[in-house]
Specification:
globular; 252 residues; mainly alpha; 10 helices; 0% strand; single chain
Length: 252
């Protein structure tokens, strides 16, 4: 954990927390920050999970305090995300590091496009589905997107929110609470898997987590009518820095 790594990672993770609290998509920046700093692909993903998990704990606690988390749906969401994320993280560890790094870098712009373009649409009060079907949908979505989170990660919260509102017919406010629970569960499952494989840079992840919390705290106090207009150019610039680094490494 040299000073250069801290100088690169900490400000970008702070920015990721700020972006995430305004309009979502902070994972695109935080994961990219570790890759720009030169961490191996698996270490970047594992260390990002550490700082992300700590930030998600704070966000989930805030949701619970506000009464947005309903246990009847939070439980199947958490169980599904735990199972899916553990599988996804295991698949990530089975992927050779050079192949995995290529997958991370190639997929980032596509994930960024999907995250910045898609948004959940609130469900009218008179729209509902049978509870058992709703439980099944929430659990299935959590397994699938949890697997994605364990293997890769950026955009997980956005994708879950869209699925919970569109498929499970949850109002956005309620879905947001279940998403936080599922996201926390998937982060924990993936983090445990990466810790068991020894790829998490614990000191760096804990330090970055402090900056992530600070960014989220500051962003929570900022009122943005259309946060995406602010977030989009930030994400594009950070991804541009990553690809500039990749080109530099190839030419070196």
């Amino acid at each position: 954990m040299d000073p250069i790594t801290l100088i690169i990672v900490c400000p970008l993770v702070f920015l990721a927390g700020l972006v995430d609290s305004i309009a979502g998509g902070g994972g695109l920046i935080s994961l990219t920050s570790y890759l720009i700093a030169g961490l191996p692909a698996h270490a970047a993903l594992g260390t990002n999970k550490l700082s992300s998990a700590i930030g998600t704990i704070a966000a989930t606690a805030r949701m619970a305090k506000g009464g947005y988390i309903k246990l009847r749906l939070a439980v199947p969401a958490a169980l599904g995300a735990l199972a899916g994320s553990a599988i996804g993280a295991k698949l990530a560890m089975l992927t050779p590091d050079n192949v995995f790094e290529m997958l991370l870098i190639v997929a980032l712009p596509f994930v960024a496009f999907a995250v910045l373009r898609k948004r959940a649409i609130d469900v009218p009060d008179d729209v509902s589905i049978p509870p058992r079907k709703q439980y099944a949908i929430v659990a299935a979505v959590s397994v699938l997107i949890g697997a994605y989170d364990g293997f890769y990660g950026p955009g997980t919260g956005t994708f879950m929110l869209i699925a919970f509102t569109a498929a499970a017919k949850l109002p956005v406010k309620e879905a947001s609470g279940e998403v936080k629970v599922a996201n926390l569960a998937s982060n924990i499952a993936a983090l445990i898997t990466f810790l068991m494989h020894g790829v998490v840079w614990i000191g760096l992840g804990l330090t970055a987590a402090v900056f992530s919390i600070a960014g989220n705290y500051l962003g929570a106090g900022m009122v943005m009518k259309d946060g995406t207009k602010i977030v989009r150019p930030i994400v594009i610039v950070v991804l541009g820095l990553l690809f500039a680094k990749v080109l530099f490494d190839l030419m070196a």
